[in-house]
Task: structure prediction
Amino acid sequence: MASQILPLELIDKCIGSKIWVIMKSEREFTGTLLGFDDYVNIVLEDVTEFETTAQGVKKTKLAQTLLNGSNIAMLIPGSDGPESS
Amino acid sequence: MDESPRPPSPSRQSQSPPPPPPQSHTGSPTDFLKGVVGKRVVVRLTSGVDYRGVLSCLDGFMNIALEQTEEHVNGVITNRYGDTFVRGNNVLYISAAEPL
Result:
């Protein structure tokens, strides 16, 4: 009982490691997690954006990026993203 | 008490261990935004349209004022504006376009 862990504590443990962010739309991001806030706005470094369209997956490389938390659906710690499986 | 990382010497063992350093969230969203004001950024909206320009200021809603703005749609410049205000609810991300 004493070792309850909150969801955001789990994310806090991931700071400095790779994370895979899945948005509410057909868009995903991977990168190194630098930080986040109470709204789960997320700062990533060495980011790749994956945008799934009818034409295929469009990849975009980004430097330090602040992701708006309002569009985030899911976080997968320690993952290199959709191409790592 | 010095703050060097070496382990405590035996003579200090009687003292209670020093408290852990305050969690230095140097990568938090607020810190990122402080560092990026005045720099060139890419602001992508949820619609997929990019606005590239110099970030002049912004607030907690991610409302953004940009200078020397270029509007990019599918990688092609479609418009140029001197000053732009972007309402925060549309912002997908703010990305640094030059080294911080």
Observations:
- The CA atoms of residues 11 and 21 of chain B lie 22 Å apart.
- Helices of chain B lie at 29-36.
- The first strand of chain B starts at residue 40 and ends at 45.
- Strands of chain B lie at 40-45, 50-58, 64-73, 76-86, 91-96.
